[in-house]
Amino acid sequence: MNLLVCRYAIRPGMPSPILDLEVANAVADGNVYRLFPDNSDVLDKNNGMMMGSLVEVDELEITVIVDNEVDVMSAISSGTVEDTRRFPDIATGESKVMQVGELSLNVMPMESICCGAHGLSVLVTANRGGIKRSLLFDTGPEEAVWAENAKRLGIDFGSIDLIQLSHWHRDHSGGMLKAVQMISKAKESASESLSPVIVDLHPDRPEYRGFMIKGQPISFPADPSFAEVRAAGGAVMKSAAAHTVLDDMFLISGFIESSNDYENGLRGGIRISSIEKGWEKDEEMADERFLMCNVKGKGIVMFTGCSHRGVVNASRNAVDSLGGSVPLYAVLGGYHLVGNTQLQVEETIKDLKALDPKILLPGHCSGWRAKYEIEKQMPGRLVPCTVGSKIRI
């Protein structure tokens, strides 16, 4: 069973890949690995080095495994999306019968409700003609919350084909090693192909990343290393270029180009590229990448981890990547407006409105001001992106 079709957009001057026979021979079903000079374990079934065309999919199933916010009760505007895991669904579908004397009680277990955490992880399953492919977008801040929420949601770990990290920040990579281990174990138990889960990463991984706060450098814990991902059972695929994956149902972006003068990266961002150099300024966040799909009859559904390079920039890049011919339908994830001024929030939402998305699903680092402004400028288009949501588009 071929799990992955991956095609790349190659920039002039990029080196040609080198076939690694040891890795290729480890795959029993005919898939071919390519080893890049940066030691990527790149699975490329067609030996093709041009980016494939993003195909239309019939449907997306989206499960929010990790988000900052817990809210299973807020109503969803009619005509937007179908969310199959609101409070009434949990209460009626996951309750257990408890006998108390002669009385039978339908008891909703509180452990059915997921836990919030500062981070993001979203499972996206695309369906095209009955063929389904599943991609895990980010893995939240820590292993325990990712694993527990995934279990509560009944995630089919063995069905996950690929993990994409949006950018190197621990609140998006913290659950990665556990996710790789659980997915690998599920595939082994199901006696599936020996092809490991692919972990799609930007090659420019800092040793440490953090912020300047009150004049003091504060570091995140280190992201998982490439070696740790491999040791957990994943196949590392490094790419800074835009490429399609999983039968061309998903497009992972390259560098997000700027299109305005107010989305200027992460203020106060710092990094350590090597211990010898110490802390350096790192506000550009050049490694950030969005994910997108093209849903038939709807348009572009874009997933963004934090939008450090700007949610408007990312949205415009997504539309431009398909030549401007496909409308923007939805934007899900972190808009990173939580620390912005009210004027900046208003400007951002005004420019998003100009792209005419039909639904907006701000989560993680978006902040209440952004949600308020969306509902103010585009009433009826705001949809909760809270942990445990199961959304169908």
UniProtKB/TrEMBL annotation:
Signal peptide: none
Domain of life: Eukaryota
GO molecular function: hydrolase activity; transferase activity
InterPro entries for the chain: DHPS-like_MBL-fold, Metallo-beta-lactamase_dom, RibonucZ/Hydroxyglut_hydro
Keywords: Hydrolase
PANTHER family: METALLO-BETA-LACTAMASE SUPERFAMILY PROTEIN, METALLO-BETA-LACTAMASE SUPERFAMILY PROTEIN (AFU_ORTHOLOGUE AFUA_3G07630)
Protein name, per record: Metallo-hydrolase/oxidoreductase
Protein's organism: Glarea lozoyensis (strain ATCC 20868 / MF5171)
Lineage, top ranks: Eukaryota, Fungi, Dikarya, Ascomycota, Pezizomycotina
